[in-house]
Each structure stands twice: as C-alpha cells, then as structure tokens.
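Handout, page 2. Input:
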Amino acid sequence: MASSSPPRRILIVRLSHLGDVCHALPLYHALRRTYPDAELGWAIQPAFADLVRPLPDMGPVFLFDRRGGLAAWIRLRRELHRWQPDWTMDAQGNWKSAWVTRLSGANRRLGFHKRDWQEPLASWVLTEQAVQARGKHCIQRVHQLVQHIAPGCNASPHHLPLTTQVRAEGAASLNKRLPDRGRPRRLIHPGRQGDPRSLPLDNLEQMIRTLTQAGEDVLLISGPAETSSGEKLAQRLAAVDGVQHWINKRGLQHYAAFFAAARDEGLRLAVGDSGPAHLAAAVNLGVDLWVGPTDACATGPWPLVSSPDTIHTAHRSPSGNISDLRGEQLARTLLKSVLCP
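Output:
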C-alpha cells in the first residue's frame, strides 16, 4: 500500500549481472529525479559494486556474496535492517532478488509485473507490481517500474555518469593502448571460449587478420573471464601489425571510461552478446554485435538494433550457431558499416 509521505530511504535490488546492472540505471535516474531528498541504496554482488558505488548521490551499497552461504544472508539482513529502507524495488525478478527484497524489511516492495519475472512464483514478496512490459528487453521492464514511480515519464536516461577524473584516465588509457596512427581503429572483446555467444578463436583470428589487412588498427580487450582467449589470440597474432592486446582488464568504472573515450574518438566495439556490450551502450559507444543463439531485441544493447535511433548493429548467424559466422565475412560486413556514434 502506497504511503502519503515521500520515502526517506529507497533500496534498489539488482544483484547481477553486468549488463542487467546497466539496464537498471534508468530506475536509478528516475528515483534521483523524483525523490531528490531520499537516500538511495543498492543491493548488489561485489563483482559489480564498482559500477554503482560512484553514482552521483548514491547512498550505501549493500554487498551480497552469493557464495557466502547462510552467513552472507544473515549479514545482509542485519545491514539492511540497520538502514531501514521505506521502499524496496526489485529490478531483477527471481528468487534470489525476492529474498533480498523481503529481508530488506521495507513495508513497500515494488517489482516487475508477475509475468515479467524470470521466476514468477517469487513475486509473492511484492506489495506493488508495475504494468506488464510491452517488449522482451530488460530495460522495457525497468521502464514500467519508472512509469510506476513517475507516471507520465516518457523516458529515463540510460547512461552511466562518469567523473571528470575517471574520464581523463580513460582517455589516457586509450592513447596508450591504441594510439592514433592515422588509421581507422576498432575495439574487439573476444568473449569467453565455451560460451555459445562467443565466436570461436579461429573465426576471431580470421576476422582480425582481415580487418588489419584492410588498414585498421585493432585492440583486443580481455577481462578476467576471457584471459585464456586473450592469451591464445596474442600468440596467434603476434606477427600481425596493427593488433594490440589488453589482457585481464579489471575495474568497471575504468572500463566504462575507456569506452567513453573511444566513443569520443569515433571508435566502435565489436563484441558478442555479453556484459561489455551493455557497458559500452551505457556510455553511448556504438556496438557491432555478433549474434548466435540469443535475440538481439531481447538481450542486445540499448537502444535496440531494431530502433530507428540506434547506434548499434547486429550480425546474426542464420542457423543460430555462432560458429557459422565466418571471420572474413564478418570483418567485411563490419568494414561496410556506415553507422557511427
């Protein structure tokens, strides 16, 4: 039941993953605008806390260690009860987030419409539900939460704010990692081998060789989960001019600032349907997505590739098998792309 007095403390529950945390940003912006005097908190897994902790006027960030067992649940409950949120908003929609929402102790508990939950039975914890989303994308579900708290709001921004200092660090990293040699430059994230959304190494290698033969400079960025892929590609491409490698890249804020600097320089990111694609989209870097078993209109970067105002492209495997996207063909398609940030 809605209260007549404005909330003093509001908790966002979006525990994971990288892309979905980015998708919850419109909710944060809407709350900050609608309730400027309220304190905002966020419950999240430690791996993604670096992304939300520096948000302007962000209050406490509550860490939930999903591998911590019962002790992690007890610790989280104690911290949330000490803070005493008035209103908790579940922007995830599964049993794990539902229990965090319930344990928050808030009298008001808002979430997606039951039909928009990954695990609908868990929606019993809610006292309020948003209207059912009109599309399949997570941001479309989040937009219904925004409409619930701010009726008539046509849009809430989907962007990740970055400080001037962090932006400067990102620009310095770009100039160091992929200096401008007067040739077109491109970022590539190889993905984790074994993931059905990732191109096989042979396809990636052929794509990169074709791009460099066409005169491009390429930076391969591999995070902790993709270290093995990055190291193998570094070995295979050691003699290829124009290929740089950044292996085991860490730090989500710095990662976002690097992408923002790339956007300012007119670069694009070629990547599979994974977290870095959504992080890039959150700073308005154009994404060229290779797509196999997933649906770019359900899980791809925002704005959707089907939207008339998108800056992103999707290159689909007709068979749904990502390995059928041949590296040379994909490179030639990327080279013909006329979209730019």
